[in-house]
Amino acid sequence: MASTSTLPQPARPGNPPSGSLPPLPNPKPRKTASDTPRAASPYGPSKLRTPSSPRPSLKSPLSSSNSTTNLNAARSSSGGRPPGSPDRSLRRTISIASFPQPPKAGSRPSTASSLSGIQAASASMRPKRSSRLSTGTTSSYRSSKTPSLLNGSGEGKFISSGDARDPDASPGHSRSSSAQGSCSTSATTFEDADDAHRSSAKPKEIKGNVIVSVRVRPDNNSGGETPRNHGEWSVDSRQSMISYRGKEGGDYIYDNVFNTQENNARVYDSAAKRLVRRVMEGYHGTVFAYGMTGTGKTFSMQGTATSPGVIPLAITDIFSFIRETPHREFLLRVSYLEIYNEKIHDLLSASAAGPGAGPQEEIKLREDSKRGVYATPLKEEIVQSPTQLLRVIARGDHARRTSSTQFNARSSRSHAVVQIVVESRERVPPGNQDKRSAITPGGVRVSTLSLIDLAGSERAADDKERRTEGAHINKSLLTLGNIISGLSDNKDKQGNPSDRDGRHLPYRDSKLTRLLQPALSGGSLVSILCTIQFTSSINSHTGETLNTMKFAARAKNNIVSHAKKAEEAYGGGGGDSGSRVLLERYRMEIQALRGQLDTQAKYQAEKELKWDEQQYEKEAQARHEEQVLEMQLARTALKERIEHLNRLILSSKSTGVNTHNSLSAFGRLSRMSATDSGTRSLRSSASQSTLGVAHSSIRPISFMSVNSSEPSSTLHYPGGSFGNEDEEDLGEFGDGKASLQRQVAALQADLGDKNRYISTLERRLLQARRSSHSRMSVGPKPPSSTISEYPDASALIHEKDMEINELRLQLDDKDRMLAALRSATRHRDLAAVTNESQSPDLRGGSVAGDSPALSGNGFGKIESPSKRPLSGRSERDDGGKKMDEVSRMLEEMIQGRGDGQERRSIHSESRRVSTSAQVAGLNPNAASWDPTLSPPVQE
Ligand SMILES: Nc1ncnc2c1ncn2[C@@H]1O[C@H](COP(=O)(O)OP(=O)(O)OP(=O)(O)O)[C@@H](O)[C@H]1O
């Protein structure tokens, strides 16, 4: 077992102290069966030997004749039960049957057998063990009602020499593989007992389960030989008896007496194994080693790597039991404390780990009805394997205080308490483990196993520190002895245990006794291992040895165990015990976590679903936004186009519009400023002339209003005021130069509009491109009604590009138009100058009704036809030619631009119309001319 290597390996030869130890409380005077019922033995009062009773003689009690006689006498007298046997003995008897038998030969005598009603005959017929520690042997032991070795009368046993234990029954080496081999053998036996126990409708209550054993440490000076008859002492391990022939001598008989050759495994098997198993079943159990310093307490409890002691073997058995009990689940937690100088220290806490560690929080003892007395705060570690548990304990051992003393090079200076808490619960059938609605496991049973290595009693040392330690140790041991001496079934008025005189027991006088209170007052199974040593040296410490033996005898006599299987607790029930049941708490936590997991999984699924939906919605939203944007773009583009076309239409159809004097309805023109009013009027005129609508009625408007002084010439225009405006305008354009300037201004304004329009379109185009890119990066989108109008973004872009190009071309055209108009202006001015210089008549003449527009365009004052000279016509023709030339230039220019380009019909139409208008405007025969109304291309 690898883990055992971590255990301390005491290898310190030491001699037992030779001085006297603090005296144990005086044991009750030896009582024989005749004077004390407790000491009653089925073997007859006359021969019954009690450990502390003075031997009547040095004659060995192991006389076969005597024993036989006595056994027969006992058998005949009371049928196996001693007359007047006390209740206490009877109670113990009841419990014995429930306490499993040790896996050793049935060679041990037991008063218990007789007390339990088994006839002395059966005791005398103790089966001889035929084989070593086998399951079969043990089973037959039990089935034959062979009495338990435990908890007999406690006052000693008279044993026939003929019934001496077979030396092979508990060979020292038989437990060499205790952890692996013999443990399992025993376990099998106990499992049978457990099964019987489980099947019972009403479990038996185990009472009076106290084992008291004495172990004799080999004397270093004797070369390892058992000092069987060492001076005044004799040890008979088979009879579980130690005899002393000195003063206060007698035969001391216990449940177990281990001679110097018996090893730790043997000690464990006999003294602790069953108790450990019972703890695993739900009983509280306490094992402690008591004895003078250097006599082998630590050696017995901890052992060595080659010979593990009670603690490691118990740990091995605990896990063996768990393995063998598949129908239950277990949780183990361990704590380790020491009582040093009446202070409790946690050996597992971090601060106990090293010298540099800070001060430890003071640990106090508390008591509650469920847990009894317990130390708090104390670190508890949950362990899952023997190795882990052994490591934890080894860590505590390392922190324990030891010092070199006169009798022990590594003397334990403190009482050390390992406490293993065992929680167990019926296992939920595997098929139902994941179904929370399925079988709910039973409650959790909590039991504790306390393994205590007491500090050794010792004489006063020279060293002050050792003396102080020794004083505390001795005081606590003395208190322990006092309490054990005073133990009885008596209770005081408050129901607390009291001694026989009704006095309360001084548990509170020391931390050790306070901590042991639950065990000593009957709450747990108890196994006490007392260690002694005989030496051949002059410094023999007979007094201390006798004290230890008396202590053991009193413990055997007085400690009564009412240990019951712990009740099953439910973690949800609240209360301290409930909350401390980790198994239940963990189960509930696991359940809660599973619930949380389920909820989270559901939540997660919902969230994912939601997220998916959101994503889908987001995508849909994005798609929608894109669509809206596209629609907006398309609408904007269309609007712009409509507006643009409207402007074009306005230009081309303005004649008809202006006829009704609704310029404002044409938007673009309505925005013109007041300063543009002249231009507007001119446009109207041009339109009218171009379209030839109400030509005759309109013509006089401008003409007559401007040029005729006759009242009749102030002719009617349906929209009266308009006519007045025209009149004003015409007055301004009297020289025709202003008209051209206004045309230029109008064209420039139009140019500005066009530029703005272009920039708008470019902006839109950019947006459309971005949108197109993003849409393409997202992936194909479902067709929409908007997109269906523009199924191909590139087509849209292309169209826009085309439009922009066309607009640019229009701009160019306009520039050219401007240039042409300027040129026309120059020509006209030239013509006017020429006319003035060559034909003054013409300057004042006019051709009434011939070309009102001409006059309107500033070609001189219009006179009546009668006053107009003939020569004037030719001059006018010259001017007209020049104007025609300009018109032609414009026409060519426009045509040239138009050639090779695809124009929409409406554009062509507007151009044609505008060209006509221009031509008409420049034609002296035309009614009027307004180039601003007729941009060649307005796209
Ligand atoms: N049964 C035994 N067989 C061999 N060696 C033993 C036995 N018992 C004790 N020893 C040895 O005797 C020495 C003292 O033993 P141990 O330390 O266990 O005594 P102790 O009772 O615990 O003393 P203390 O009370 O001072 O701590 C150790 O070296 C140990 O190995």
From TrEMBL:
Q: Which domain of life is it from?
A: Eukaryota
Q: Which PROSITE patterns match?
A: KINESIN_MOTOR_1 (PS00411), KINESIN_MOTOR_2 (PS50067)
Which is an annotated GO molecular function term of this record?
A: microtubule motor activity
Which residues participate in ATP binding?
G291, M292, T293, G294, T295, G296, K297, T298
Q: Spell out where the chain crosses the membrane.
A: none
Where is the sequence biased in composition, kind Pro residues? 10-27
GO BP annotations of the record are: cell division; microtubule-based movement
- Annotated ranges, domain Kinesin motor: 209-558
Polar residues composition bias: residue spans: 108-122
Query: Composition bias, kind Low complexity: at what positions?
Result: 45-80, 132-144, 169-189
What Pfam families does the record tag this protein with?
Kinesin (PF00225)
What spans are recorded as compositionally biased (Basic and acidic residues)? 195-207, 489-506, 873-891, 899-912
| Keyword presence, Magnesium | no
- Which InterPro entries does this UniProt record tie to the protein? Kinesin-like_fam, Kinesin_motor_CS, Kinesin_motor_dom, Kinesin_motor_dom_sf, P-loop_NTPase
Q: Which GO terms describe its cellular component?
A: microtubule
The UniProt keyword set, sorted, is: ATP-binding, Cell cycle, Cell division, Coiled coil, Cytoplasm, Cytoskeleton, Microtubule, Mitosis, Motor protein, Nucleotide-binding
UniProt subcellular location: Cytoplasm, Cytoskeleton
Annotated spans, Disordered: 1-234, 486-506, 768-788, 830-939
- PANTHER family the UniProt entry points to: CENTROMERE PROTEIN E, CENTROMERE-ASSOCIATED PROTEIN E
Give the family, as the similarity comment puts it.
Belongs to the TRAFAC class myosin-kinesin ATPase superfamily. Kinesin family.
Q: What does this protein do?
A: Required for assembly of the mitotic spindle.
Q: What is this protein called?
A: Kinesin-like protein
Q: Which organism is it from?
A: Penicillium olsonii
